[in-house]
Amino acid sequence: MVVTASIDVLSNPLSAAQVPCIINGKPYVTSKTYSRNDPHTGKHLFDVTAVTEDDAPWKATSPIERRKIFQNAARIIETRKDDIVKLATYETTHSVAWTHVDMTLAIAALEELASAITQLTAEVVRPAPGQEGYIFREPFGVVLGIAPWNAALTLGFRSVSNAIIGGNTAILKSSEHSPRIHNAVAQIFAEAGLPAGVLNVVHVDPRDAPKVVESMVAHPAIRKVNFTGSTPVGAKIAEMCGRHLKPSVMELGGAAPFIVLEDADIEHAVNNAIHASFTHSGMAIYLSQKSNSYESVQVRFACQQSQSSCLVSNTMRANLSLSVLLLHDSIADEFLNTMKGRVLKAGQSPESAYRGLFTAQSADRVRSLINDAVAQGASLVTGSTGSGNIIQPTILDNTPESARIVTDEIFGPAVCVIRFRDEEDAVRIANDREFGLSAAVFSTDLGRAFAIARRIESGGVHINDSTIHDYPTLPHGGWKKSGWGRFNGLEGIKEFTQLKVITVNELHKFPTA
Known about the structure:
Residues 55-282, 321-502 form the Aldehyde dehydrogenase domain. This is Aldehyde dehydrogenase family. Keywords: NAD. One of its GO terms (molecular function) is oxidoreductase activity, acting on the aldehyde or oxo group of donors, NAD or NADP as acceptor. Pfam families: Aldedh. This protein has two domains: 2-252 and 482-499, Aldehyde Dehydrogenase, Chain A, domain 1 (3-Layer(aba) Sandwich), CATH 3.40.605; 256-463, Aldehyde Dehydrogenase, Chain A, domain 2 (3-Layer(aba) Sandwich). It is α/β, with parallel strands linked by helices and 513 residues long. It has helices at 63-79, 81-91, 96-116, 152-165, 179-192, 209-218, 231-243, 266-278, 298-316, 332-340, 360-375, 404-407, 423-431, 446-455, 489-495; strands spanning 2-3, 18-19, 21-23, 26-29, 33-37, 44-49, 123-125, 131-139, 142-146, 169-173, 199-202, 222-228, 248-251, 256-260, 288-294, 379-382, 394-397, 414-420, 435-436, 439-442, 461-463, 479-480, 483-484, 497-505. The chain is built from 15 helices and 24 strands. Helix content is 36%, strand content 21%. The chain is globular.
């Protein structure tokens, strides 16, 4: 490896021809590289330094010192927004609007962790007269964080920040699609005062990822692993952790049910359904995928939705179409004729809040899900599968529960509609799946909605609100094949600490026989 002088991916984010790893606070360049190309045009952007299988006093700092560093990091993001936008739109081709959302979430998460760390206190228990037990939380040591690209800044920070503020050191294994943004995470922390070596960033050629990640997981220095990504990849990493007896936190796939009861505020539900289905081209992890609605309100819902879609598009400066569609057969032709002129192609400018999918391969997968549903009898209400990485926002009505688009994670701008008879039917449909990351229930009867929410098998259920929620003040994570463990706030810090018990006994002689 060759060491260069300093980290600076923000001052001129488009200049570097090669992206280094970051070890002990300094950039490292190796002889191994892989290319990063524009996902839309295929144009070569830059080369990324990649580690190979052989490469691989913070604990004593006070919570107040750590809090100050995290507060500084949040302020740096705020002051460097223009640089971050330039970097993100270049490297990932995310829209300007989405990048601002990403930065806002990252700032909020850092500020909440800064606030929560001083709440992590020891407990004292007196198990018997003359005895005291002290319960402490101690850091694990080195934590490996594996981050995705779809909210590269927020999830890059999240993969290491919960661990670091708890007194651990961390290694961030970047996404091959956002290595510069993940280097920027290290740069921001360094400028905020994080000591060199507390956070290291490594890039891995996708072709070498399985063996390199296993090598890192197996290394004795790594004490815990966290991963955000797909369920199939998460299962492989969890298997690695199991072989080496390493605890892990996993946030995996999601396919959020979005239940609209017959007494719901239709306009409010429609606006949230659109937001939940098509934000970030359907590539947010906790987007709403399946909508259930009482048949008695389908006509009102469909008519209101066609009106609100244009309002949302204008407000967000985006080529948004519909998301969850509840459509009655008697107005299908009229509705489709109205909607044909309102469905716009995915935008390609950085200012657009709706973009094409990240790769043509991702789009092909979504196309196959849509085609499978149609082949099984679903009705294509609006949308077009197109070509390349462009898929228009797509709504499928009367989708069979056996269709792959119902049972699998979509991760694209498509949503299926299923009609239910009563609450029991709605809960059954919502729970009859492998995922449990997020869900929503819409009703003007809050007691009724709350009772249904308690029955839904999901890590989070949102009443009269979008499924796209990750409040930094609340624990976030999934049930079932959506993963385990929690990020955010005090619970997120606890997740990356381990319990230690120290007992103190009064001096006394043990009784003799």
